[in-house]
Amino acid sequence: MQPNVAAETMVRGTGGSSAASKRSAAQLGYTEDRFVPHLVPRAGRRAPAIHRGYYVRARAVGHCVAAFLRGGPPGDGDRGGGGGGQGPRWRQVLSLGAGLDSLYFCLKDQGLLGQATLFLEVDFPAVAAHKAALVAAREELATLAGGGAREQQSGAVHFAGDDYRLLGVDLAELPKLEEALCCAGLDPQAPTLLLAEVALTYMEVERSDALIQWAARRFSQAWFVLYEQIRPDDPFGHVMQNHFRRCNSQLCSLTRYPDLKAQQMRFVQKGWAGCQAMDMNEFYERFVSEDERQRIRALEPFDEFEEWHLKCSHYFILVASKGEGLCRAPAFPGVEEKAFPGFAGAVTASVCAMDAGVTGLRRYGHRSLHVAPDVILTTGGFGDRGGRHCRLTALHALVRDGGRWTNGDVCLAEPGEAWDGRLFHTVTLLQTGRAVVVGGRLSPVSRALQMCGLRVLEAACSSAPPGCLVVEVTRLPPVEDLAAPRWRHTATEVVHRGERYLFIYGGCGPGQSVWADWFFLHVEELRCQQ
After folding, report:
1. Are 104 and 119 contacting, i.e. CB atoms less than 8 angstroms apart?
2. What is the Cα Rg of the chain in Å?
3. Confidence class of residue 75 from pLDDT cuts 50, 70 and 90?
4. Is the pLDDT of residue 323 over 70?
5. How many C-alpha atoms does 505 have within 13 Å on its Cβ side?
6. What are the distances in angstroms from CA 159 to CA 1, 148, 167, 173?
């Protein structure tokens, strides 16, 4: 069967994008990888949320690979150069769909491979040939691969070093894959780690299932480490799938295996003895230390926690195992002993009808306020404007008309005035009918913004067009003794001895500081009291 040229071109495109993101994360210090620039000479800087996503991905994969290389039973023979079975333990790593990944070079540089590990990478022939040329042309890479490292001009092995093999084979063609691995020196009896990072999901499900089953039958002692997507049916899952479709990359496994349980059953049913899996939120909480989290926080300004946690809940790491020794040494010890609560839950809610023409509500970091029985006013946030994601400076109104909610027109009382586009502020409607806006920010490095007031005017009080909701924005004077500027805080109106206050608690500030203080803001005199 001839390789599917269209599928190969598509996967090469996604692999190149992934490698560029790994390079960007490494350059910012998220990962220790000085080798990826050799394989990806040029790449633009990615967004902080992408850096964090690739960081936790690299951390999870690295955790599994290090656990495999450092633990488990010795092989039957000492192929590492020792004698009497007392020498280094012979191990193998087989990276499926490796692309331009630099994992081998990082592990070799860190001394984790030693002289007793064979590392093999497999990808489409064109990808393998391209990578082989890059490795051969970079002296540091070729030297790490060993003194006998050389680029191959024929056959499935495109590059061979002392402990490194780079193979060009379509993973869907199992007979050719097995033949190539045999020629490359793979030993099916030795402890083997198979690694697939967002690779099998691009294959037809029947072919990826066949590969998983083949591996279970072929290797007597093995781990299969899989990093892929889950949860296709919620709103983020739809956006995720649409993104890959625009890249001409269909996530084939996602519908058949939509969650962790389905993925675990997949491997067990294909012949693997045990299986552990968790999403990236759980991995980050369980296996990344507080010191390491502090290091990551200091790398660059970051405040997109909702987006990042959503993405982490839609990616998982899985380790399937077989062979008595490897099953006794789990990659994630103690995980089954304590349930992880997760970041998502369910609440009871009723659904109200909404006109299909309602627009402007795809945003986050905003605040909505019930300003009248039939009117909801939304301020600020980050969302779509004319096909571009940005801070939103237009106020939005939902108006109930005959049992349905539709868009309403909003205009400001003063011509030329505009909302400043702040995010993560609070808007509290007081009993007087006036709303007070506290805090918020424009970017994670900016100071919190000045307080202001909002009030909906009667139509007769303005020259606005008929049916338009008129909003007056008032800049409030500076507050004496105001505590540190903040965003992501809470604000609630309270009454104490007949006086009205805003109780303001917590929040974030410049420098990624997190506040645990509180204070009372007198709403009429605009003064603070602890």
Report:
1. yes
2. 28
3. very low
4. yes
5. 5
6. 24, 10, 7, 20
| DSSP string over 348-417 | --PPPPB-TT--S--EES-EEEEEETTEEEEE--EEEETTEEEE--S-EEEEEETTEEEEE-EEESSTT-
* pLDDT reported for residue 449: 81
pLDDT higher than 90, residue 9 = no
CB 22 within 8 A of CB 46: no
- The type of residue at 36 is V
The closest alpha carbon to 170, from 184, 158, 182, 156, belongs to 156
> Beta partners for 453?
436, 474
Q: What does the pLDDT read at residue 34?
A: 95
Q: Are 409 and 468 in contact (CB under 8 A)?
A: yes
Distance CA 479, CA 452 (A): 11
How far apart (Å, rounded) are the C-alpha atoms in residues 317 and 61?
8
Residue 403's contacts (CB-CB under 8 Å, 6 or more residues apart) are 353
| 461 band by pLDDT with thresholds 50, 70 and 90 | low
Q: Which of 202-216, 284-298, 333-347 has the lowest mean pLDDT?
A: 333-347
What whole-number distance in Å separates Cα of residue 358 and Cα of residue 369? 17
Torsion 30-202-135-42 (CA) sign: negative
DSSP-assigned beta bridge partners for residue 23: none
- Where would I find the beta strands (DSSP E) of 172-299? 192-197, 222-229, 274-279
Q: What number is the average pLDDT over the span 280-301? A: 95
**CA separation, residue 243 to residues 238, 247, 285, 310 (Å):** 9, 7, 27, 15
Q: How many CA atoms lie within 13 A of 331 on its CB side?
A: 27
Q: What is the mean pLDDT of residues 379-407?
A: 84
Residue pair 331/294 in contact (Cβ under 8 Å)? The answer is no
Phi, psi of 208, rounded to the nearest 5 degrees: -70, -40
- Strands 315-322 and 274-279 come out as antiparallel
| Residues paired with 475 in a beta bridge | 452
β-bridge mates for residue 406, sequence order: 399
Instruction: Kindly indicate the confidence band of residue 89, based on its pLDDT and cuts at 50, 70 and 90.
Output: low
Separation between Cα atoms, residue 181 and residue 120, nearest integer Å: 8
Q: Which amino acid is at 495?
A: V
H-helix or E-strand containing 127?
Answer: helix 125-137
Query: CA angle, corner 494, sides to 489 and 500, nearest 5?
Result: 115
Per the model's pLDDT, the better-predicted residue between 314 and 342 turns out to be 314
Provide the pLDDT confidence category of residue 6 given band limits of 50, 70 and 90: low
Report the Cα–Cα distance between both ends of the chain, in Å, rounded.
Answer: 75
- Tracing tokens 């850096």 back to the chain, one arrives at 51
